[in-house]
Design a protein that fits this description.
By secondary structure, the chain is an alpha+beta fold. It has one domain: Alpha-Beta Plaits, CATH 3.30.70. Helices cover 37% and strands 29% of the residues. The chain is built from 4 helices and 5 strands. Strands 2-3-1-4-5 form a 5-stranded mixed sheet, covered by helices on one side. The longest helix is centred in the first third of the chain and has 18 residues, at 18-35. The N and C termini lie close together (10 Å).
Length: 126
């Protein structure tokens, strides 16, 4: 199986904030695409009613994930934090130190936030 790491992040979008999310998403996607060759997928999906957003993230390896986490300007990171994360599901081997850096701060700051880690079992990637 591949060494890549996948994430699906689910966000709550407050009424009237879908356009702000669209803008932040465009900026984050543009920066990631231009500056992060190890980011293989970084895609946002919005529900028809604009209340829920899923982000699909796939990284070549843990190093690429860590580079992604450090790549956004502080102002853009602050704006992105205005959308409440509800759930994160990670697929692949995510080291404990990465969990502590990336996920634990969200879990501590956002009541009800959940994270699940799915270890590789079987399969292939093309």
């Amino acid at each position: 199986m591949a060494a890549s790491v996948f994430f699906v992040v689910e966000l709550d979008v407050q009424p009237g904030q879908a356009d702000a999310l669209r803008q932040v998403a465009r900026e984050m996607v543009d920066l990631s695409q231009a500056n992060e060759p190890g980011t293989l997928n970084y895609e946002y999906f919005l529900s028809a009613d604009g209340s829920t957003c899923h982000i699909f993230e796939r990284y070549m390896d843990i190093d690429a994930l860590q580079r992604h986490s450090q790549s956004f300007p502080p102002e853009l990171s602050r704006r992105a934090q205005s959308f409440r994360p509800r759930r994160l599901t990670a697929y692949g081997k995510v080291p404990e130190e990465v969990r502590a850096q990336r996920v634990d701060p969200i879990r501590q700051a956002v009541p009800g936030f959940t994270a699940a880690y799915m270890e590789p079992l079987s399969g292939f990637s093309r």
